[in-house]
Amino acid sequence: MDSGSSCSEEDTHTFKIILLGNGAVGKTSLIRYYCESGFAQNYKQTIGLDFYSKKITLPAANAPEVSLQIWDIGGQQIGGTMLNNYIYGSDAVCLVYDVTNVSTFKDLEDWKAAVEAALAEGASADDKPRKAPLMYLVGNKVDLPNRQVSDSLHDRIAQQYETRTGFIVSARSGEKVNAIFTKIAADLTGTELKKNDLDMADRVTAKVISAPEERVEATRAPVVLTKNKKKKDDCVVM
């Protein structure tokens, strides 16, 4: 499979996106929320890598259809030949950390160094070096208390790392999850989106093409039905 960007016979632009960061920062949850429109309380930590693919239509006039190949790299994989192979040839890299765990934020320096090493090694071995991927800084778990990384610190490091628009998101609530992947797709296709387009990113039409077979089913709370009479202006959950 060609991991680089391409355009199919149906005029669909295909791009490879890599998510990197320490284990348990929520990379899998981010991807699953985006591709499966939901958050699971329980899942197995990614060992090695998982692959997801999703087609979207950008909320802009005459925007092309885009297929995003999203690679979930296990947090244990920093450094090594395998990681280098997946980074080189990617179109975008998201450096993901947990806003409630400052050590995951500090470790992004090592992940960024791993990306730079992979790109340098790949370019030296390639007769026609590929274009460097776009870089994004993503802070996850903003819905949780005891936040340790502020917006200002996030923005400062994003500027220092020369990453594109940094996002503070929540895989649990879904806050800005669609927006970041929509922004990446727009940047890769050269499509200009207005702020309102990103704010309305939940309207992006999508079709999940493939996802890892192994899943851990999330526990669902039982539904309790009561016989109390409905009071005026009460809401009823169906």
From TrEMBL:
Keyword Nucleotide-binding: yes
InterPro entries reported in the protein's UniProt record: P-loop_NTPase (IPR027417), Rab (IPR050227), Small_GTP-bd (IPR005225), Small_GTPase (IPR001806)
SUPFAM superfamilies: P-loop containing nucleoside triphosphate hydrolases (SSF52540)
Top-level taxon of origin: Eukaryota
Gene3D superfamilies per UniProt: P-loop containing nucleotide triphosphate hydrolases
Pfam families linked to this entry: Ras
Keyword terms, alphabetized: GTP-binding, Nucleotide-binding
GO MF annotation terms: GTP binding; GTPase activity
Xref: NCBIfam families: small_GTP
Protein name per its UniProtKB record: Rab family, other
Organism per entry: Strigomonas culicis
